[in-house]
Amino acid sequence: MQSRRFLPVLLLLFIGSGCAALIYEVVWFQLLQLVIGSSSVSLAVLLGTFMGGLCLGSFAFSKRVSAARHPMRVYAALELGIGAIAIVVLLVMPLVSGVYTAWAGSGIWGLILRALAAAICLLPPTVLMGATLPALSRSVETTPEGVSWLGFFYAGNIMGAVLGSLLAGFYLLRLYDIQTATFAAMALNAAVALIAWAISYAIAVDPPKASTKAPEKAAGASAIYVAIGLSGMTAMAAEVIWTRYLSLLFGATTYTFSLILAAFLVGLGIGSGAGSAIGRSAKSPRTVFGWCQALLVIAIAWAAWMLSESMPYWPVDPSIARNPWFNFQLDFVRCLWAVLPAAILWGASFPLALASVAKPGNDPAELVGRLYGANTVGAIVGSLVGGLLMVVWLGSQHAQQALMLISVLSALLILKPTGEPSEAKSAGVRFAATAIGIGLVATILAVVAVREVPGLLVAYGRYSATRVGQADVFYVGEGINASVAVSRLADGTLNYHNAGKVQASSEPQDMRLQRMLGHMTTLIPQHAKSVLVIGCGAGVTAGAVSVDPTVEKVTIAEIEPLVPSTVSKYFSAHNFAVVQNPKTVVHIDDARHFILTTKEKFDAVTSDPLDPWVKGAAMLYTKEFFDLVKTKLNPGGVVTLFVQLYWSNEEAVKSELATFFEAFPNGLVFGNTYQGGGYDLVLVGQVEPTVIDLDQVEAKLHRPEFATLAQSLREIGVNSAIDLFSTYAGQAGEMTGWTKDAVITHDRNLKLQYLAGWGVNLNIGPQIYSGILAQRRMPYKIFTGSDESKAALFDAIQNFAK
Q1: Is-contact 249 312, C-beta < 8 A?
Q2: Residue 157 half-sphere exposure toward CB, CA atoms < 13 A
Q3: Architecture of the domain whose range is 220-453
Q4: Of 118, 259, 271, 601, which has the fewest Cβ atoms less than 10 A away?
C-alpha cells in the first residue's frame, strides 16, 4: 500500500479516535454504575468487561477480516459502528436497568447478572474499539519504519485519550450531561470515519501475495508476549494503587481522577512516541525493551517514595488558593512528578515489543492484535487482582514491592539469551551478572524506598502538611474500596477518617449532627420499626437510631467492609455498640444498588454518605435516587439527609436542597451550628405533609423505655423536644426564591459532584446558612401541640443561632 504521505493524517485520526473512546469510557462507566453499583465488585466487572472487549477485538480482527479489504474503509466502518452503538447503549440502558433490577441479588448469581449487564452494554462497542489499531496497522508494512509508525499510532491514540479525559471531566460533563458528551464523541467518530473513507480513494491497495512458506517469526517471540503482558499488569496495578494515594493527596473529586488519568496517559503517550523512534533505529529493540522493564524497578520505587515520604509533607495548603484552577494546575504537576518516569517506561514498552517481534512479511494486523491482546490481558489481571486484591491482602507497600519483583522477572525474561547461533558464548555469563545486578538493586530499593502508606495522609489527605504533630493516628486500614484511619487529638477527641478527611468525630458539633440525624429519623414518624441507614461512618447516627425502643430492625448499607469492624472497635462508646446490636443487619454494598435491588420497605431512611464531592457520591443525591427511596417507604415514612455547609459552596448546597425538594415538596430544613455559624444541615422529607406533635415527642422522652434516647440527646445539649426542633431553618416552599437558579442533580448529569468539587477548599458555611435563614418563616402549620409548647418553640426558633 502506498500510504506513506498520509501517515501523519492517520496519526491525527487515531488521536481523534482515542479522544472519543475515553469520553465513551467515562460516560458508560457512569451509566452502568447507576445500574449495577459503584462498589469495587461492580467496578471490577465494568473494567474487566471493557478491557476484555478491547482484547477480544484486537485479537480476533486479523482472523475475521480479510487482508484484501481496504484498511481505511474497514477503519471508517469501525468508527461509524462505535458511534452507532453509543446511541444504542443510551436507548437500551433503561431496559437493561429494568431487567437487572428485577433479577439482581447477592452472591454469585448477583455477580453473574452484573457481568451480563456490563457485557450487553460494553462488549459490542469495545470489541470494535479494540479492532481499530489492527485495522489501521494494515496501512503500513512490517518494516522498521512501518513498525515505528504503528507505535506512533498507539502513542497518538493515548494522547487522544488524554484530551478525552480532560474534555469529559472538566467540560462536557461539568457543564452538560451524558447525552451531550455522547453526541460529542459520536461527532468525533463520524469525522474520523469520513476522513478515513475519503483517504481510502487516494490510497491504492496492493492485494496480498500468496506465499508457500510460513511468515518468519522472531526468535524468542513467546517471551516478548509474556513480558508485554506482565508490563500491562504492573502498569494497571500501579495506576490503581497510585490513584488511591493521589486521591487522598488531592481530594477524591471527579476532577482529581481526570487529572490522574490524564497524567498517566501523558506518560504513556510520551513513552510510546519515544519507544517508536528508538525502535526504528535500535540494533536490538528487544534489549531496549528489557532495560525499560528493568528501569521500572527504579521508577516504581521513585513513585512510591514520592507518594508516601515526600509529597504529603510538601508545604502546600490548598485552602489559600484564590481559584480552584490553581490547585488543579499544582495537582497535575505533582502527579506528573510522581508517575511520569514509570508511565514513560510502560509506554515505551509496547512499540519496542512490537519492533522486537516484527519481521518482514508478517500481517501487521495479526502482529498488533496479538501483542495488544497480551498487553490488555495483563492489564485486566493487574486491575482486578494486583490493584484491588493485593492491596487488601498485602497492603499497598508490599503490593508495590511485588510489582517491582514482577518487573525484574519481566526484564530477565526478555534479556535472557534466545539461543541463536549469532549470540556469543559469553552471553550466559553476562546475563547472570545482569540478573544479579538488577535483583540486588531491586531488593535495596524495595526495602528502602517503598514504605507503608502514611497514617497522616490517610487521615488528613491534602492537608497532611498542615497537620503534622497535631494528632495521633493510631489505626490505618486499607480496604477494598477505601483507606480509613482513626486518630486521637491531645484533648481525647476521636476522629474517624475516610477519603482523606475527618468524616465523623466525638467533637461536640459532629456528635450533635449525628445524633440529631438519627433521633429525628425515629421521632418524627408515628412508627419507625424498620430503619435503613445509608453509610455506617463512625456508627453514631445508626447508634442513635438503634436506641429508640420502637425500632425493631436497623439495616446499615455500607460500601467498605472495613468500616463496620473498625468503628465497632474504636467508637462503640459513642455509637451504643450498634454493629453488635442484635437488631442491626449490615449489608456490604453500594447503597444505591442495595435500595435498587432490595425487596424490603422501611419506615424511615437516613442518609449520611461521603461528601458529595467524592467521585460517585453524587449518585446518592439525584432526583431519581430520592424517587427510588420513596418507593421503599412505608406509608408515613420519613427520609432524612445530611448536607454539609463546610468545604462546600453555595451552588452545591442549593443543588442539594433543590433536588431534595423536587422529590419531597414538603421537605424541611434543620440546622446544626458551630461557634454561632452554620456548620451542616439535616433535611427531612415525607411523601405526606410533615406534622410534628411536640407534646407527643416530649412525652416519649419522659417514658422510662426512652431513657437511653433522652440521655443521648442530653449529651449533645438537647434537653427537650423544644430544644431539638428549635434548630428549624426553613421548608421547601420558602426556599424557592433562594434556590430558583439551582441546578437539579439527575442521573444523567450528576451535577452535584462537579459543583461540590469546585468548593472543596472553601469554608463559607456561616454565609450559606445566613442565606438560608433569611428565607425562614415561622412553621405554624408544621408543629402541633399545646399553646405553651408551640409558643416556646417559636420563641426558641427565633433565637436559635443568634
Answers
A1: yes
A2: 21
A3: Up-down Bundle (1.20)
A4: 601
What is the Cα–Cα distance from 716 to 723, expressed in whole angstroms? 10
The tens digit of pLDDT for each residue in 216-267 reads: 666 678 999 999 999 999 999 999 999 999 999 999 999 999 999 999 999 9
d(CA 330, CA 335): 9
Residue 219: its pLDDT value, please?
65
The Cα 665–Cα 660 span in angstroms is 8
**Which candidate, 528, 575, 531, 580, places its Cα nearest to that of 557?**
531
Among the four given CATH numbers 1.20.1250, 2.40.10, 2.40.160, 1.20.950, the one describing domain 1-204? 1.20.1250
Q: Which CATH class for the 507-692+730-784 domain?
A: alpha beta
504 sits in which H/E element: strand 501-505
Place of cell 468508527: 79
359 three-class SS: coil
Cell numbers linked to 134: 489492527
* Burial category of 168 from C-beta neighbours within 10 Å (exposed 0-12, middle 13-18, buried 19 and up): buried
- Model confidence over 545-585: pLDDT tens digits? 999 999 999 999 999 999 999 999 999 999 999 999 999 99
* CA torsion angle 221 222 225 227 (round to 10): -100
Burial class of residue 732, CB neighbours in 10 A (0-12, 13-18, 19+): buried
3-state secondary structure of 731: strand
Q: Which residues neighbour 443 within 8 Å (Cβ) at sequence distance 6 or greater?
A: none
Closest CA to 69 of 157, 136, 2: 136
What's the CA gap between 379 and 346, in Å, rounded? 12
Residue of 369, 405, 421 lying closest to 225 (CA atoms): 369
- Cα distance between residue 593 and residue 711, in whole Å: 35
Beta bridge partners of 585: 555
The answer to whether 576 and 543 are in contact (CB under 8 A) is yes
Place of cell 497514617: 455
For residues 209 and 135, give the distance between their C-alpha atoms in angstroms, rounded to a whole number.
18
Rounded to the nearest angstrom, the gap between the alpha carbon of residue 386 and the centroid of all alpha carbons in its chain is 17
* Shared fold status for 1-204 and 220-453: yes
* SS3 call for 639: strand
pTM of the full predicted structure?
A: 0.94
* Closest to 24 measured CA to CA, from 186, 155, 171: 186
**Cell reading at 724:** 431539638
| Domain extent listing, the chain | 1-204, 220-453, 458-498, 507-692+730-784
- Cβ(158)–Cβ(18) below 8 Å: yes
Residues 572 and 580: their CA atoms lie apart, in Å, by: 9
CA distances, 700 to each of 433, 445, 532, 549, 710 (Å): 81, 64, 22, 10, 9
Q: CA geometry: angle at 288 spanning 386 and 130, to 5°?
A: 50
* Helix ranges, 40-138 (H): 40-64, 71-103, 107-137
Give which of 657, 522, 504 is closest to 566, Cα–Cα. Answer: 504
